[in-house]
Design brief:
By secondary structure, the protein is mainly alpha-helical. It is 50% helix and 9% strand. The strands form 4 sheets. A 3-stranded antiparallel sheet has the order 1-9-6. It has a two-stranded antiparallel sheet with strand order 2-5. A two-stranded antiparallel ribbon has the order 3-4. Helix 1 runs antiparallel to helix 2 and helix 11 packs across helix 14. It is globular, with a radius of gyration of 24 Å. The protein starts with 7 loop residues before the first helix and ends with a helix.
Length: 484
């Protein structure tokens, strides 16, 4: 039902909104302290907010400005976008509060039945019920508004609609209703069931969950891994300079620039993060009734009977040395447990000449290393692969490009030394301190990730420091570091 709605027009909307939101995120960081460098106490908050804004625009056509719940970032915004943080008539939560709460507490909303939440005498149960009910109420209001607008403009229904997913779904529904009434045509039972309000609402809510938290966590891990690996961060920035030169963000084009980003160091970086941290670690599959399938592993064949449930372990597939090369910089040492995006530029001696298994778009770029079919499945595989993969890829590539084109990210070292002491250190001393910060960040990434329906960083805090390029404190190109 949703797959046809992910059009190239929608991808362009995702691209433009991701660039806009990344710009606003950078602006909020700079405005919060107005210093040469900006301390970001917990990057998780912002990497959760940005995809939330993008999915609302590209999914529902709702503009949300970069207004944090924290008063330090609150700024004025236009009346047309203020509703996200204003309590709607008859509501108990704002739009932002309701959707954020539903996403953050999704696991408990799913496992506790509605009737139990209604009678449970606990504040948390009341909160869960309210968040879920308010989310559904807001989405229904959006649907009703879109449908009303489209019916008023009957001549353009099905021809002219917003490029967001909700508008496309409702436009298709209204167009079919108009076709039946004017031409007397009857849709099939499948068509009628596919375009009910309830099914549209369910798909929209599913898209909200799947398109927000997993993207947010992958984006978080990408920024942190680049802060840990500052040499690779510099190489990525050089690649961005080659792609964009001095062009302004508003001149960046999905059609012109996306392929170069996905085929270069930015694409390799995101591919490697997805290899290390697959959004869905356990992927359920199965055979249908009357369908017996054969699976070949190495030189052995295994018969899978009908009606058999299977589970694919993505993290195991992504660490199998039979199918994955080492980064050339590792000099032959096995490094599959490490963040080594250089492996995506390795000689293709382990790669298959066939396209990786799965629907089009799941494979890495044609110019990068192409894993063996089934060895790389961050977006699942087969006909049930993630239909929003291009949505996520476009968003992450655009955000990473905006952040690192003019800025660098460093790990916060405040747990080990203060800023005044760093200024007195030479390069080797600074790098020794940075190694401690890197070890701490790696522990948080390794131990803090949990899979509760979606991938989340549940434990630990990751603090970063934003600086303009050329003002890094721990790079061997920093003039102060080299002078000592």
């Amino acid at each position: 039902m949703l797959a046809p709605m992910f059009t190239e027009q929608n991808a362009r909307l995702v691209w433009e909104e991701s660039i806009l939101q990344a710009e606003q995120m950078l602006e909020s960081w700079r405005d919060s302290q107005r210093a040469e460098a900006t301390y970001i106490p917990d990057i998780r908050e912002d990497t959760m907010t940005l995809p939330f804004h993008v999915i609302n625009k590209a999914g529902f056509g709702v503009d949300i400005p970069w207004v944090s719940e924290s008063s330090r970032r609150t700024r004025g915004c236009a009346d047309s976008t203020r509703s996200a943080d204003t309590l709607g008539r008859g509501h108990r939560m704002t739009y932002r509060e309701a959707l954020h709460s539903s996403i953050s507490h999704l696991f408990h909303i799913v496992i506790f039945p509605t009737w139990l939440l209604r009678i449970a005498p606990f504040p948390y149960a009341t909160f869960l019920r309210t968040a879920h009910e308010e989310t559904i109420a807001y989405l229904k209001e959006l649907m009703a508004e879109r449908e009303s607008d489209m019916k008023r403009d009957q001549d353009n229904v099905g021809k002219k609609s917003g490029f967001d997913i909700m508008s496309a779904l409702i436009s298709a529904k209204v167009h079919r209703q108009k076709t039946r009434s004017t031409e007397g045509k009857l849709d099939s039972l499948e068509d009628r069931e596919a375009l009910t309000d309830r099914s549209i609402l369910a798909n929209v809510f599913l898209m909200l969950i799947a398109g927000h938290e997993t993207t947010a966590t992958v984006l978080l891990l990408t920024l942190v891994e680049l802060a840990i690996n500052i040499d690779w961060q510099r190489r990525l920035q050089e690649d961005l300079d080659d792609i964009f030169g001095s062009r302004r963000h508003d001149s960046w084009s999905l059609q012109q620039d996306f392929s170069r980003l996905s085929e270069g160091t930015v694409g390799a970086t995101i591919n490697e993060v997805l290899r290390l941290y697959p959004p869905a670690n356990i992927i359920p599959k199965g055979t249908r009734k009357g369908s017996v399938q054969t699976i070949r592993t190495g030189s052995r064949d295994f018969t899978v009977p009908e009606n058999t449930a299977l589970q694919f372990l993505a993290v195991s597939a992504h660490h199998n040395p039979r199918y994955w090369p080492s980064d050339p910089a590792s000099l032959g040492k096995e490094d599959l447990d490490e963040f080594r995006p250089g492996r995506w530029f390795a000689a293709p001696d382990l790669a298959s000449n066939r396209n990786p298994a799965g629907a089009p778009g799941t494979e890495p770029s044609a110019s990068l290393f192409r894993p063996h079919p089934g060895a790389y499945i961050p977006f699942s595989t087969g006909h049930r692969g993630c239909i929003g993969r291009r949505f996520a890829q476009v968003e992450m590539l655009a955000v990473v490009a905006v952040v690192f084109k003019d800025y660098s990210l460093e790990l916060d070292v405040g747990d080990f030394v203060d800023d005044e002491a760093i200024e007195t250190m030479g390069l080797q001393q600074r790098q020794a301190v940075y190694e401690k910060a890197k070890a701490k960040a790696r522990r948080v990434c390794r131990d803090g990730i949990r899979h509760h329906l979606t991938m989340q960083l549940k434990h630990g805090r990751l603090a970063l420091r934003l600086v303009r390029r050329g003002e890094e404190r721990f790079s061997d190109s920093h003039p102060d570091a080299l002078s000592r």
